[in-house]
Amino acid sequence: MMVKEVAELSGISVRTLHHYDEIGLLHPSRTTEAGYRVYSDEDIALLQQILFFRELGFPLKQIREIINRPDFNRLEAMELHHKLLLDKRARLERMIETLEQTMKHEKGEISMTNQDKFAGFDFGSNPYEQEARERWGDKAVAESNEKLNKLSKREQGDLEREMNAIYRKLADLRHGSPSTEEAQLAVGEWYQLLNRLGSYSLEAFKGLGQMYVEDERFTRNIDRFGAGLAVFMRDAMTEYVDSRQS
Q1: Do both 150 and 220 map to the same domain?
Q2: What sign results for the dihedral spanned by CA atoms 42, 45, 49, 55?
Q3: Which domain holds residue 25?
Q4: Is residue 61 located within the same domain as residue 140?
Q5: Residue 145 belongs to domain with CATH number
Q6: What pLDDT sits at residue 130?
Q7: 0.70 cut: is pTM over it?
Q8: N or C: the chain end with fewer CB closer than 10 Å?
Q9: Whether 130 and 34 share a structural domain
Q10: In which element (H, E) is residue 109 found?
């Protein structure tokens, strides 16, 4: 298939396909003497997989590294995509239900508690576990998973609410200085909570705060509690660490 046909088939632009070729993400099987790109069925299958990764929020650089690994298995990746998309669908369905209930609440048709209004929001889980492993090693992540798996459903729900309460507390403070006593106490609660799940050093904690801003996926999720919260948390976490390392 020619590049224009692939663009029409996949719904992405010709320019995007050219970009994928230029960065080494998806090379067409051959190029004609006139310079036209020609894509094989194998190329089309790989493009589908790339777009699944993109839908799940993976950056292009990481996708390229994954699909170019000698041990990359396309079927295993598909099975993982399937699981993650099902998880994503379940979260969206819970949030849609919460939104529908909230609209009824606003119309006076039903009554909702403050706890009910946040059903379906799950900012305590980390869908980017592999990235965390690559940045900080397996130990903290493995310990966190082990501890989480030992919790009952009720305990997991309590933990999620505790995490979200800290996010909301920091969101209320985000328009002030991250170095205030109140902000530092709140971010200290966040550090202590993370260390109940794993062994996070001060340096790893500071790196996590930086990631909140550098990775748009984390920024987007955190800023749902309030615009600018990710930046505020990064600054507060940096202040928290620096004050203890000086």
Answers
A1: yes
A2: positive
A3: 3-67
A4: no
A5: 1.10.490.50
A6: 56
A7: no
A8: C
A9: no
A10: none
Measuring CA to CA, how many Å separate 151 from each of 122, 133, 158, 215?
A: 16, 22, 10, 29
**Residue position matching structure tokens 């397996």:** 138
CB neighbour list of residue 1: distance below 8 Å, 6 or more residues apart: 9, 38, 39, 44
Q: Rounded to an integer, what distance in angstroms lies between the CA atom of residue 226 and that of residue 114?
A: 17
**Count of domains forming the chain:** 3
Which pLDDT score is estimated for 7? 93
Selection from 181, 189, 228 nearest residue 205 by Cα: 189
What is the greatest pairwise CA distance in the chain?
69
Residue linked to tokens 């690559």 = 134
Half-sphere exposure of 15 (CA within 13 A, CB side): 0
Query: What distance in Å separates the CA atoms of residue 220 and residue 197, rounded to the nearest whole number?
Result: 23
Residues of the chain falling short of pLDDT 50: 126, 128, 132, 135-137
* H helix or E strand, kind and range, residue 188: helix 181-197
- Can you point out the beta strands (E) in 69-220? none
DSSP helix/strand/coil, 38: strand
Q: Which amino acid is at 235?
A: D
